Amino acid sequence: MRWKILNKDKNIIKILLENRGIKDVKNFLDPPWPQFSLAADKAIKRIKKAIKDREPIVIYGDYDVDGICATAIMWETLHAMGAQVMPFLPQREKEGYGLSKEGIDQIEAKLIIVVDSGIVAHEAVMYAKQKGMEVIIIDHHEKPKKLPKALAIIHTDKLCAAGIAYFLGKQLQDRGDTLELAAIATVADMVPLTGVNRSIVKHGLKSLSETQRPGLRALYEVAGIKKIGTYEIGYMIGPRINAAGRIDSALIGLRLLCTKDITKAREWAKQLDDINKERQKMAEESTQHAFQNAKITEKIIVIEHEAYHSGIIGLIAGKLTEKYYLPSIVISKGEKMSKASARSISGFNIIEAIKTHDKLLVNAGGHPAAAGFTIKTSEISNFKLLITKYANEKITDDMLEKTLKIDCELDLKDINMDFYNSLAQFAPYGMGSPEPVFASGAIIQDLRTVGDGKHLKLVIASKAKQSSFDAIAFNLGHMAGQLKVGQKIKLAYALDLNTFNGKTNLQLKVKDIIKQ
Question: Which of 58, 142, 371, 487 has the fewest CB atoms within 10 Å, counting from its CB?
Answer without folding.
Answer: 487
